[in-house]
Amino acid sequence: MEVLLYNNQPVKPRRRLAATLAAATLFGTVLGVGTTAYAQQAAPEVNLTPSPIQQLGQTLYNDGIYLNSRYLGEFAGSVSGGQRQGTDYAGELNFGATFDMEKLAGIKGGSFHVLFTQRHGNNLAAQTINNSVSVQQIYGGGQTAQLTIFTYEQKLFDNMVDIEAGRTDMPDSFDVSSFYCDFQSNAICGNPPDMGKITTTNFYAVAVWGGRLLITPTPNLYLKVGAYQSTNNENPDAHHGFYWGTEGSNGYLLPVELGYKWKTPGAIANNRYDIGAIFDRASYTAPYYGPGTYNNESAVYVQGQQMVYQTSPNSPRGVYVFGEAMLGTAGGKQVSNLQAEAGMIWEGPFASRPNDNIGLAVSGIHYNNRYLNSLYQTRLTEGGAGYPDHNLIMTELHYSWQANKWLNIMPNFQYIINPDGQGFSTYSTHNLPNAAVFGIQLYVDLPTLFGIPTKS
């Protein structure tokens, strides 16, 4: 995980935090002492005695238990276009930890990861705009409590080989960039949204059985292969996010990715280019194509990211660009044939605000003809008119303000071109006008707030 620093402290991470029961118990008993803890950290010259929570956190850290937790909230309001206008809020609280098995049990290179999540709120895109891709990336995967990560990781041969397996999700390791979740839009954050329209992949925060093998034969070259369960349990019912059985499985997915990376001195992230494929061996239905079930719904993708401008040598400040494209290989049986996205992050746009950033990105989904023909017939049956648009295009512009060591506030503007009308339970009877959305994302790093040491 790559982490920015604010006065040598972690701030809003590029990937979701690894997190645990110990943390849940820990933070649940001390809510309300955060202000004091932060005040002590912000003014060390006072030389106050560490609070009990800080002492406990330091003890766990020294023993090899690295606590992580965050609260992420996202407000969104549509001001024009779509089915109608309105506002909504969604959020997630998570608790977790990484257990260093070398310190705890003498297993060199071993670590154990646990993450619990609690999601809540509503989906503005689906319930108001009538669009299938959310403008609040934190919504989805069941608005409930879940065990989202429960994996064991083992590094071997001086970290040349890295194996991780357990309860997890495939998109956490494949076709992912450290920059995607700088954005609030689900068209950018997480993974390309088309992955869920081209394959039967399950997404965070829903865990499935799976694992991946990462081989780094040279410092620059890497190969990843994996195997993951596919399940129709995309949105677990309330209080049912801890089921570990295989009932409901549709099959499995086999991803592979080959990439090349290098680092610009001082940059916050690697420059990286990779190519990958997802071999989907899960069964699915495609009534717009024909009766029965199908399989072999696979995809190929390419992606890259690079620092293209640096304000000064060895500085993290500068401009980073990224891009990705995914192509479905099953033709008319897949909802979408092609997806692409591109964007940029201007890190530290002002010398006085080195930990802020400005982000701009655009993402597009191309729906296939057979799928749109089916939607068109549904529209005519309901008394509507107009052939559906082939392309759904979503954009976001934001300013990410690192208010202090533990708080990030990110106002953003999103624009949806050709909302697809697939957010509601019934399909839109006409093509919808383009939608304008204003959003605010709130990120709270809870360990830093309470003065607890963490490890990225």
From TrEMBL:
Keywords: Signal. GO terms for cellular component: membrane. Transmembrane segments: none annotated. One of its GO terms (biological process) is carbohydrate transport. The keyword Acyltransferase does not apply. One of its GO terms (molecular function) is porin activity. It comes from the Bacteria. Gene3D superfamilies: Carbohydrate-selective porin OprB. Residues 1-39 form the signal peptide. InterPro entries: Carb-sel_porin_OprB (IPR007049), OprB_Porin (IPR052932), OprB_sf (IPR038673). Belongs to the OprB family. This is Carbohydrate porin. It comes from Acidiphilium acidophilum (Thiobacillus acidophilus).
